[in-house]
Amino acid sequence: MDTLERTEDSDLGARTLGFRLFSSFMKKHKNTIIQYVGLLLVLLLFTIWTEGKLLTPFNIKTIIRQLAVLYTISIGLVFVFSHGGMDISVGAVLGLSSMSTALAMNAGVPFFVAVLIALGVSVTCYFINIIIAVQFGLMSVISSLAIMFISRGIVTYKVSTSVEAIKLQNSSAMDIFRNQTFILISLVVIGIIGLILFNWMKIGKQSRAIGDNPLASMQSGVSIKKTKIIGYLLAGVLVGFASLFSLARSSTISENTGAGLEMDVIVALVLGGLALNGGSKSKMSSAIVGTMTYVLLNNGLVMVGVATEMVSLVKGVIFLAVVFLLLRRPRSEVVPR
Amino acid sequence: MEKKVFIETVNLTKKFGDVKAVNKVSMKVYSGEIRGLIGENGSGKSTVSSMLSGLLPVTQGEMFMFGSPYRPRNTLDARDQKVSMIVQETGTIQGLSIAENIFLGDEARFSKGGFVDRGAMHRESKKALELIDMGHLDPSKPIQTLNFEERKLIEIARALYHDPSLFIVDETTTALSHEGREMIHRIMRRLKRENKAVLFISHDLPELMDICDSLTVMRDGHLITTIDRQDFDESMIKKSLVGREIEGDYYRSDWDSSHENQIMISVENVNAGILQDVSLQLHKGEILGVGGLSGSGMHELGKIMYGDLQPAKGKVTVYGSKPKTSWWKRLGKSGNDSTAPHDQLYPSPMKSIKTAIQNKVGYVSKDRDQETLIMDASIKSNLTLSALDQLSRMGMILPASERKFAKQQIEGLNIKSSSMNQPVGELSGGNKQKVSFGKWIGNDSRILILDSPTRGVDVGVKATMYQLLYSLKRQGYSILIISEELPELIGMSDRILIMKDGRIKKEFIRSPELDESSLIEHMI
Q: What pLDDT, on the 0 to 100 scale, is given for residue B249?
């Protein structure tokens, strides 16, 4: 069968050349196409659907505030996903980090110490996570599961045993993280730092190499442990930073603070064209573009009046479609020796 | 007796990407015949047999069995049509019993109410084992209780059990001892008497000439000629194998085995895994060849010298850059010692791959596609991965300097590609190998450890590789070649070490008198 098709193929070669060039172009740049076409599509669709209300200055401000947390986290987690790691603890870690910061500030520590606490808590969580994974040869998703339960457990315990709700008493101390200009500048700076680290520095290049082929990376002199640990530490710093944005948005800590973020990140990264198994196809722009698409999608769906109960379902379907497009790969053959 | 065409291929072609591994091969195999298939590495003989046995789909062309189209969908389908193959690498699965290995993928035949009837399976396994005179084995034992050779014979039992009409033996005998070979020869002759066909693929020309009725020679994917037994002539076959006189510029032409006295890597009384008390020295400007069979420990030796494996006993020392003193130690010292000559080499113990790379050692693995290259990554990323420290300026690796670096290697080694951003997986075997060389030449390595450097590389590229190695030698590189191909070792090395059972058995110095048979003598 195969042979027949192929002979015909070469006969029709001239006529279908254009199409074949097109399809091979599409195949090669599949991830990039999904990434940008997805963003454009969502933007266009909801702008028309909401009759332009999507892009009113007020709504754009809302979108930027919604974007801040997810965007910051996603950039951090690219350093985890690109080397083949998987993390589902981010929501719980963010919750723990926010709570620690709130408690510390209520106890009266200076603002900058509170910021350090936020970063310190999440960096510690991520450090423990990767050390468990590396030292005991555990799959990183399993160790992150443990971290997730522990972090969430601490938050739930603390919240349920407190007499009154854990709430940032001096909410105005976090004003800076509510300032529109500060948020915008932070996002741009974080994006640029992420791009430089990932594209121009050893950590990004080595992460991608490990994601593709740990053995060959090792034989090329890449220290796998070191690279993974640095990747997780970077993720920890950014998650800590994101927890400040989160605390600024809602100053009350509940046992659900940050819940579901771990899945939002994955969906956003996939919408941004990131192959979740890591490797050379990983791109930092997936985090930047993907989170924008995701937040626009969320915001737009609510604006056009899709019931909140339905948003999850719609997102699930879109996620499945994108994953299907991304992960289907042609069967490759191996040359016999 | 009129010979009957059993299997016929017409314009059989197989492409891997843009590379034609097999190009329009038309051949006929007759019933009651032992057909030899010979060719250099990468000549396409394994690809032909893989297509016949259903392991690889056909790109173009047709195959016929008794005149009717034969299109196996997979190996099981081929087996049902009475075509069985024994592969080069081991095809048994550890952790399963002998019986389970024999009936792998075929458990359904012993199905009894949804469960596998082990009793029946073991009885049938016993029958299969008796076919190869190994009826004394207990089929319920796990396969890893057998040694390499016995496992190979289990595969043969598996193939024979299904009573094949075409029995394909792909370079199996190189792994076997004399008795094992005799056994396979007996089986092949028996099949021949039963009017079955045998396709026998081997590197070993005398063996083929001894047992085959006819020989088909392949070269660069083409069928060159088929010779009947009465016309066998060793020198003629050899000539058609290579396609030209191999004297002169194929290997290096000088017989000068001199090199500098400076030792670059020294291995002293090393024990590790199979290796027993191995000592050797690699000198500056020397090409040192290491030969032996697969299980002789020579591949492990390469890894030991690269710091990838740590010896249990003994030590490995590399002579290279001055060991870095940590900054807190440097703080305590006053003054600097820049007065030392620049080209002074300092010994340091080989602790890890990091030590190796710091001391300018490069390593190309036997399993190049799995261990040395990253198939999905671009040529550029592959070339720069081992040179990131060298390319980085204040911690940053700018795209421009990466491009410049990659361009240098691509041009210097003449790597054929559409662009430096092309994934390495799309390149041909020879170009892949050039990329893996480029990785180490680019990062200024002075010592190259090359495990099977010309594996899966065609003749033309081989010649360029050899020229490259020779010119590297003259530039003062130290090169260790680990290879199973003896002509290559004889042709290229200043010194050859032959390994057997984890020990260095014999050392030969480069000389025109050296021939394969004197080397083989110490290998088996």
A: 60
State how far the alpha carbon of B264 is from the alpha carbons of B84, B346, B420, B487, in Å.
Answer: 49, 10, 33, 26
For residue B420, count other CB atoms closer than 10 A to its CB: 20
The shortest CB-CB distance from A337 to any of B308, B386, B455 is to: B455
- Is there a contact between B396 and A218 if contact means CB atoms under 8 Å apart? no
> How many Å apart are CA A11 and CA A278, to the nearest integer?
39
Higher pLDDT, A14 or B454: B454
How many whole angstroms from its chain centre is CA A111? 27
User: What is the amino acid identity at position A267?
Assistant: V
Distance between CA atoms of residues B77 and B51, nearest Å: 12
* Contact criterion met (CB below 8 Å) for B163 and B132: no
Q: Report if pTM > 0.80.
A: no
A336 assigned to some structural domain? no
The amino acid at residue A45 is L
pLDDT in tens, B124-153: 888 888 877 777 888 888 887 877 777 878
Nearest CB to A221: which of B353, B398, B429? B353
Helices and strands, counts by H and E, chain A: 14, 2
Residue B44 banded pLDDT, cuts 50, 70, 90: confident
Query: Among all residues of chain B, which has the CA nearest to that of A212?
Result: B374
- Cα separation, B203 vs A151, whole angstroms: 62
Nearest C-alpha in B relative to A197: B396
Q: Which two structure tokens, joined as six digits, stand for B217?
A: 């020679």
How confident is residue A12, by pLDDT bands cut at 50, 70 and 90?
very low
Q: Does residue B342 surpass a pLDDT of 70?
A: no
Higher pLDDT, B34 or A26: B34
pLDDT value at A138 more than 70: yes
Question: Maximum distance among all alpha carbons in chain A?
Answer: 80
Residue A63 covered by a domain: yes
Name residue A167's beta-bridge partners.
A252
Q: Which residues of A touch B423 (CB under 8 A)?
A: 280
**How many structural domains does chain A have?**
1
Nearest to A335 among B308, B354, B429 (CB): B429
The phi, psi pair for B202, rounded to 5°, reads -155, 160
Within-domain flag for A254? yes
- Report whether pLDDT(B339) > 50: no
Query: Which pLDDT does position B448 carry in this prediction?
Result: 95
HSE, side-chain direction, 13 A CA sphere, residue B309: 21
Domains of chain B with CATH codes: 5-242 (3.40.50.300), 262-324+340-360+446-454+477-524 (3.40.50.300), 370-445 (no CATH)
pLDDT tens per residue, range A163-178: 888 888 888 888 889 8
Query: Which of B295, B296, B309 minimizes the C-alpha distance to B267?
Result: B309
Q: Of the candidates B149, B132, B134, B150, which has an alpha carbon nearest to the alpha carbon of residue B187?
A: B132
Distance CA B280, CA B290 (A): 11
Chain A residues touching chain B at CB-CB below 8 Å = 1-3, 6-7, 196, 199-202, 205-206, 208-209, 212-213, 215-223, 279-281, 332-333, 335-337
